[in-house]
Every structure is written in C-alpha cells, then in structure tokens.
Amino acid sequence: MQNLNMIKNKLSEIMGRRRLNMAEVARIAGLTHVTVFRIYHDKTKTIELETLNKLCNALNCRIQDIFEHIPD
Description:
CATH architecture: Orthogonal Bundle
Number of helices: 5
CATH superfamily: lambda repressor-like DNA-binding domains
Oligomer: single chain
Largest sheet: 2 strands, antiparallel
CATH topology: 434 Repressor (Amino-terminal Domain)
Strand order of the largest sheet: 1-2
Number of strands: 2
C-alpha cells in the first residue's frame, strides 16, 4: 500500500499568480537560479530554513502558502 502522506509544493502557483519567473524570484530572494529551479520542480528532498525564509520574504507569504501537508 502506498503512503499518501505528502507535502504539496505550491511555489509554481504563487509565482504564476504573481507573474514571476524563476530568475526574478532568485534575484529578489538572493538565491541561486538552481535552488529556485529545484524547489519549483520538486527536485529536492530537503530545504534549508534560511532558504524558506528568503522565499517567504521575497514572495511576502508564509511557509504554508508555499507548502501544504496533505495527510492520508
């Protein structure tokens, strides 16, 4: 049986609503394009708290706006 607990990444939704591309978010947040790319495309298993803080500040949002826990 598959474990359905998951974290839904909503970064692309936020960026789309605000019409921001990855390069813009990286510049505003002070992150590398590669870091934003990996988060955007769910290519990372861990994210540093400092990175989350920078994303939240850059997007003027809360962590739960970017990630949502979906229980089974």
